[in-house]
Amino acid sequence: MSSFDHTKYRPFEPVAIANRTWPDQEITKAPIWASVDLRDGNQALVEPMTVEQKKEFFKLLVDVGFKEIEVGFPAASQLDFDFVRWLVEEDQVPDDVYIQVLTQARPELIERTYESLKGAKKAVVHVYNSTSKTQREQVFRLGKDGIKDIAVRGAQCVKDHAEKNPETEWVFQYSPESFTGTETDFAIEVCDAVIDVWQPTPEKKCIINLPATVEVATPNRFADQIEYFCRNVKNRDSVIISLHTHNDRGCGVAAAELGMMAGADRIEGTLLGNGERTGNMCVVTMAMNMYSQGVDPELNFGDMDRVISVVQSCTQLPVHPRHAYAGELVFTAFSGSHQDAIKKCLANQTEDKPWDVAYLPIDPRDIGRSYQEVIRVNSQSGKGGVAFALEQEYGLALPRWLQVELSPIVQRFSEEDGGVIQAADMKRLFEEHFMTSSAPYALGNYELSKKDCDTVSAELAHNDGNITVHGEGNGALSAFTSALSEHFNVRVDIVQYQEHALTVGSDSQAIAYIQANIDGERYNGVAIDNDIVSASIQAVLATVNQKVIASEQANVA
Ligand code: KIV
Ligand code: ZN
Questions:
Q1: What is the distance in A from the centroid of ligand 1 to the CA of 472?
Q2: I need a surface site. Which of 59, 192, 209, 523 has the fewest CB within 10 A?
Q3: Which UniProt keywords apply (predicted)?
Q4: Whole-angstrom Cα distance, residue 550 to residue 250?
Q5: pLDDT band, very low/low/confident/very high, at 2 (cuts 50, 70, 90)
Q6: Closest ligand 1 atom to the C-alpha of 177?
Q7: What is the DSSP letter of 102?
Q8: Atom 8, ligand 1: which residue's CA is nearest?
Q9: Cα of 236 from ligand 2 centre, angstroms
């Protein structure tokens, strides 16, 4: 008997607000962005990031343009503590960037938090405690006064430590955790008490961060809470109102957008939406939403493939092919009528006119992509048909992103050939276009070693003589990629990676499929070998070989 029974749930109780103004507001200016990838995002990973991964991710966040970056929870994790020390001691934080750290409102944790930040130039100390009815009654078993007291004592402790360490430019942040499940008047009472301790001024503001720790209502209800809060909180002109939305109902971005319209100044989130449960709100989506409306998001996602590559390699989480703006299929049209409309609009589009292309909300080139059309050839050789045939006949389980690349190649061939295309032809086309790891350069002997990081030294055979390339990285693939990047003086980012064992016509062989962005262009490489590491690095070499050939051809032309 199913227990699927909606009557066990109660509706969210909205805050009573008269004359709400947020529905008439527009977002015309970027918020203060704060990344929580390295804290909230990291806490939600099956395998938390290593220090090396955090370093790489931090660099990406700085390059994208974040000025406030929550780098960890140093009192709760030695790795986070060490990472904060590395940032400070190795002077890794640009002068205009605040590093932010989270701590519970407990004296011993606050003390350890300040130890981690000793010597930092600028830092946000983010202190929180839970305020919702559910947590008060069932987790902490405290009344409202007890919960308020935890916040006030935490705030005082944060202030005392800051006064003892005047060499750092401190900013204080308080979060009434589980704000959406807290009576809004009580959240205001607690935040007012914290503000009383910190005594912010318009010149030296504090941050009050309102988390939708769990998203429990439609975004309009959240916006009502935010407008009500902004109207009633103490010293509004001395407080930065920050939002931290999660995506439990799938509306994390919408809630943050409506919350900004309701008066918030600052938005916390993660790149591509990693985070607890269904994730934090996705900063890429929200920033690109602004961008598509002609508003400068003050974050630069012009190299989206690098963002994807770093996020995927640090979180071990895939990016959905239909993820807003970033997914591999979002600028691809499958339907004939869409393709036709896009082609006509693109033909009309000129540099001096605002973007106006059917089905494409932004110009894919702005984020390093191009528009792709996928044509269904016929029942035999359509994308699904090609993939099916290659899998059945040869055991090649092509990832979707490679199916999308192969489909138009097969389509062209079938148009020229005029007949039904055979599986052997599909395989030949597949090999010609993607299995290009033997020319102009072929992998010879290589050596991998591991000290602080992985290093590779590899011989590459070429008609004009052999060369040796060297590289370092976080893993064999990344070391080899950086060896090729350096030798050929190109930027290679791995965007997609997939591998599997071959079961048809082979004896324990593995196949690796790679999509790389090389100097802004996408290349796909595939290689088969007895060893998966060799297959992977040959697949990267296949992409670089294609780039080398393309550059030679461009030079000749
Ligand atoms: O989701 C949440 O409430 C948090 C807080 C610690 C801000 O991550
Ligand atoms: Zn959170």
A1: 36
A2: 59
A3: Acyltransferase, Amino-acid biosynthesis, Branched-chain amino acid biosynthesis, Cytoplasm, Leucine biosynthesis, Magnesium, Metal-binding, Transferase
A4: 43
A5: confident
A6: 3
A7: E
A8: 40
A9: 24
Which one has a higher pLDDT value, 161 or 507?
Answer: 161
36, 177, 266: residue to mutate for ligand 1 pocket, most atoms within 8 A of CB: 177
Ligand 2: centre distance to CA 290 (Å): 23
Q: Select from 155, 128, 140, 114 the least CA-distant residue to 209.
A: 128
Query: Rounded CA gap, 323 and 317, in Å?
Result: 13
Q: Which part of the chain has CATH 3.30.160.270?
A: 441-556
Which atom of ligand 1 is found nearest the CA of 246? Answer: 1
- The fraction of the chain above a pLDDT of 70, given in percent, is 96
Amino acid at 451: K
Whole-angstrom Cα distance, residue 264 to residue 244? 11
Thinking of the domain 30-299, which architecture would CATH place it in? Alpha-Beta Barrel (3.20)
454 close to 478: Cβ distance less than 8 angstroms:
yes
Chain segment 483-493, per-residue pLDDT in tens: 999 999 999 99
Q: Which residues does the annotation place in the binding site for Mg(2+)? A: 40, 244, 246, 280
In total, the chain counts a number of residues equal to: 557
Q: Which ranges in the chain are annotated with CATH 3.20.20.70?
A: 30-299
Predicted confidence (pLDDT) at residue 507 exceeds the cutoff of 70 = no
User: How many angstroms separate the alpha carbon of residue 550 from the centre of ligand 1?
Assistant: 48
User: What is the chain's mean pLDDT, rounded?
Assistant: 94
- Ligand 1: which of 210, 246, 268, 278 to mutate, judged by most atoms within 8 Å of the beta carbon? 246
What's the topology of domain 332-349+356-373?
Helix Hairpins (1.10.287)
Task: Write the pLDDT tens digit of every residue in 302-314.
Answer: 999 999 999 999 9
What is the per-residue pLDDT for 79?
A: 97
Kindly report whether the peptide bond that precedes residue 440 is cis, defined as omega within 30 degrees of 0. Answer: yes
Q: Where in the chain is the domain with CATH 1.10.287.1400?
A: 332-349+356-373
What would be the CATH architecture of the domain defined by 383-435?
A: Orthogonal Bundle (1.10)
Choose the CATH number for 441-556 among 3.30.160.270, 3.40.50.1820, 3.40.50.720, 3.40.50.2300.
3.30.160.270
What's the rounded Cα separation, in Å, for the pair 553 and 73? Answer: 52
**538: amino acid identity, one letter:** Q
Residue whose CA lies nearest to ligand 1 atom number 2: 213
Which residue is closest in CA terms to ligand 1's atom 4?
A: 213
pTM: 0.75
DSSP, res 236: G
Distance 111 CA to ligand 2 centre (A): 22
Residue 391 has what pLDDT? 84
